[in-house]
């Protein structure tokens, strides 16, 4: 059911199956699976330096390896950096902004139709 629902939603909002910025789970995975990332860091860090949860220009902490930096947001470039992997946050924001009008219109239409069906049948919408 999950796959069918995802395919129907993607088709409804006209998202391609591949290549869309919202398809990537990289930022989500770095945040949600931080414990696993930390375990990997413990096993692989050469210097055992650690910097996390920083907001500011990238590189403003001198003398630390990129792979020892976790969860850094660089406002000037709008990038999220995790152990040397740099991800474009603005690309995600733009993709969401493009979907917002369509999803708002679809939601309003759904609730109008549900209210009309409720008035006609007395049965509440799911």
Describe this structure as you would to a colleague.
By secondary structure, this protein is of the alpha+beta class. The chain has one domain (24-121). Helices cover 49% and strands 15% of the residues. The protein contains 4 helices and 4 strands, in the order H-H-H-E-E-E-E-H. The chain has a 4-stranded mixed beta sheet. A hairpin with a 2-residue loop joins strand 3 and strand 4. The model has no long low-confidence stretch (mean pLDDT 90).
Helical content stands at 40-55%
- The first-to-last residue Cα distance is 17 Å
User: How many DSSP E strands?
Assistant: 4
Shape: elongated
Overall SS class: alpha+beta
Low-confidence segments: none
Largest sheet: 4 strands, mixed
Number of helices: 4
- What share of the residues does DSSP label as strand, in percent? 15-25%
Mean pLDDT: 90
How many individual domains?
1
Order of helices and strands: HHHEEEEH
Question: What key phrases describe this protein's structure?
Answer:
126 residues; alpha+beta; four-stranded mixed sheet; 4 strands
Would you kindly provide a brief summary of this structure?
This protein has helices at 2-12, 26-32, 34-44, 89-121, and strands at residues 51-55, 69-74, 79-82, 85-88.
Topology:
Blueprint: H1 2-12, H2 26-32, H3 34-44, E1 51-55, E2 69-74, E3 79-82, E4 85-88, H4 89-121
């Amino acid at each position: 059911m999950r796959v069918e629902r995802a395919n129907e939603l993607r088709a409804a909002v006209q998202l391609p199956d591949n290549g869309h910025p919202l398809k990537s789970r990289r930022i989500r995975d770095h945040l949600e699976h931080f414990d696993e990332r930390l375990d990997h860091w413990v096993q692989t860090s050469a210097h055992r330096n650690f910097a996390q949860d920083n907001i500011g220009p990238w590189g403003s902490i001198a003398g630390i390896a990129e792979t020892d930096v976790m969860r850094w947001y660089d406002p000037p470039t709008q990038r999220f950096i995790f152990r040397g992997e740099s991800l474009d946050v603005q690309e995600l924001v733009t993709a969401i902004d493009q979907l917002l009008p369509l999803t708002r219109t679809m939601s309003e239409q759904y609730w109008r139709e549900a209210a009309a069906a409720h008035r006609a049948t007395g049965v509440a919408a799911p």
